C-alpha cells in the first residue's frame, strides 16, 4: 500500500465531522480528562495495595483479640506474658538476660 493510496483512503474519513469528533473525544478522555486512563490505572493499583493492607490488619486485629482474651482469662498466662515481653519481676527475684549472638 503506497502512502498516496493510504492518504486517499484515510483523509476522507478524517474529514467526516462525526469521526473527527469521536477521535478528539477519545484523545481527550485518554490523556487530558481529570479521570484519564493513567490516573485510573494508578488508582486501581493503589486500591489493590490498600486491600492487601486491610487484610493484613484484619488478621492482626483477630490475633490481638485472641491474645487479649487469653491474657484476661488466665492469670498465669498474664504473668508469663508480662515477664517475657516487659521483663517484669517479683520483688525477691533477679532477672538475667541471655543474648544469643549469630
Descriptive notes:
This protein has 102 residues and is an all-alpha fold. The protein folds into two domains: 1-33; 44-88. The protein has helices spanning 3-15, 17-32, 37-73, 75-86. α3 (37-73) packs across α4. The chain is rod-shaped and about 100 Å long.
How many helices? 4
**What proportion strand?**
under 5%
Instruction: Provide the helix percentage.
Output: over 70%
Name the shape in a single word.
rod-shaped
Using only C-alpha atoms, the radius of gyration works out to: 33 Å
- Low-confidence regions: none
What is the N-to-C order of secondary-structure elements (H for helix, E for strand)? HHHH
Largest sheet composition: none
Class by SSE composition: mainly alpha
Tally of distinct domains: 2
Overall pLDDT, averaged? 85
Compute the separation of the termini in Å. Answer: 72 Å
Tell me the total number of β-strands: 0
Compile the SSE list and pairings.
Elements lengths: L2 H13 L1 H16 L4 H37 L1 H12 L16
Would you kindly provide a brief summary of this structure?
The protein has 102 residues and is mostly helical. The chain is 76% helix and 0% strand.
Amino acid at each position: 500500500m503506497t502512502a498516496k493510496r493510504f492518504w486517499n483512503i484515510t483523509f476522507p474519513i478524517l474529514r467526516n465531522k462525526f469521526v473527527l469528533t469521536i477521535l478528539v473525544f477519545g484523545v481527550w478522555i485518554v490523556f487530558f480528562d481529570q479521570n484519564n486512563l493513567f490516573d485510573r490505572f494508578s488508582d486501581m493499583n493503589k486500591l489493590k495495595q490498600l486491600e492487601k493492607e486491610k487484610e493484613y490488619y484484619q488478621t492482626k486485629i483477630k490475633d490481638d483479640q485472641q491474645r487479649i482474651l487469653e491474657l484476661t482469662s488466665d492469670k498465669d498466662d498474664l504473668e508469663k506474658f508480662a515477664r517475657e515481653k516487659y521483663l517484669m519481676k517479683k520483688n525477691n527475684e533477679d532477672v538475667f538476660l541471655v543474648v544469643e549472638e549469630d
